[in-house]
């Protein structure tokens, strides 16, 4: 599956613990990544400073198959489930 351009849910919903340019301590869940532009596209996509967790995330029809709002909800629920499990 190809990433739906302009969705941005994976740059908002999950927490990211690794450093991001402009966010040296990562970002909390639900906060927009500073590298997410107004067009909801990653400003550092394909660049070496992009965190591995971002580069490793691959869109999946079970998660990303709905609307942008639905994807954000699914990723938010997965983040919450991850926190409960740890």
TrEMBL record:
UniProt xrefs under Pfam families: CxxCxxCC
Source superkingdom: Bacteria
Protein's name in the database: YkgJ family cysteine cluster protein
Organism: Ferrimonas pelagia
């Amino acid at each position: 599956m190809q990433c739906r351009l302009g969705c941005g849910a994976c740059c908002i919903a999950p927490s990211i613990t690794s450093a991001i340019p402009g966010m040296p301590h990562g970002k909390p869940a639900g906060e927009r990544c500073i590298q997410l532009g107004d067009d909801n596209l990653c400003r550092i996509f394909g660049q070496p400073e992009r965190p591995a967790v971002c580069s490793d995330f691959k869109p999946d029809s079970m998660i990303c198959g709905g609307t942008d709002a639905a994807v954000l909800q699914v990723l938010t629920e997965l983040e919450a489930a991850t926190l409960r499990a740890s």
